Amino acid sequence: DAGVIQSPRHEVTEMGQEVTLRCKPISGHNSLFWYRQTMMRGLELLIYFNNNVPIDDSGMPEDRFSAKMPNASFSTLKIQPSEPRDSAVYFCASSPRTVGQPQHFGDGTRLSIL
Amino acid sequence: AQSVTQLDSHVSVSEGTPVLLRCNYSSSYSPSLFWYVQHPNKGLQLLLKYTSAATLVKGINGFEAEFKKSETSFHLTKPSAHMSDAAEYFCVGGFGNEKLTFGTGTRLTIIP
């Protein structure tokens, strides 16, 4: 079975550029989560969706960050404009919309903003 | 408030010896608890899960964990460490909604 698929795996870009990260959740999973992982702050939940609808975006750091889920099989996380402090590994995870079920993680996108 | 605490940020064991990674939780609800492993440059992989069935949970790669309500603990164990077990381990709690609460992680080092 295909797991959560993220692209690109690595992204290096210059400050001020727009960055778009992509995620394909596991088929049949109704919940999708975006996380950011850094050495300093560990794993942080940015936003999550249920049935394509954003439920909680309180973790989104600022207005430069936005996320969409146009359909059940695709989500994007966009940073515009990007800054060096956005450098991190960004993970997407999905789960069935059932309390108590684990989340399944993609391999992440390693983002470096120069 | 719900929380998950991993008691050791770093554990070192010799290859072939037992592994113990400690985790405590705080919750007024009956929690779901998970252990995940993260190898370098990889995502988090589910090792095992507790969801109010058997208190002793067996996972992949020989790992197991025991839910002890009286001690609010969910420690991860393995009888014999292998070099491939070197990784970061996260204890994670689910407390009544889709969001998960992550511990700060324990880095496991295996000494040859």
Mean pLDDT of chain A, to the nearest integer, reads 94
Number of DSSP E strands of chain B: 12
Q: What's the overall geometry of chain A? A: globular
Which spans of chain A have pLDDT < 50 for at least 5 consecutive residues? none
Number of H- or I-type helical stretches of chain A = 0
Oligomer type: heterodimer
Characterize the main sheet of chain B.
6 strands, mixed
Percentage of residues in helical conformation of chain B: under 10%
Largest interface: A-B, 24 and 23 residues
Number of helices of chain B: 0
Number of strands of chain A: 11
Helix percent band of chain A: under 10%
| Content of β-strand of chain A | over 45%
Radius of gyration of chain A: 13 Å
Structural class of chain A: mainly beta
The H-and-E topology of chain A, N to C, reads as EEEEEEEEEEE
Approximate strand percentage of chain B = over 45%
End-to-end Cα distance of chain A, whole Å, is 36 Å
Radius of gyration of chain B equals 13 Å
- In sequence order, what are the helices and strands of chain B, one letter per element? EEEEEEEEEEEE
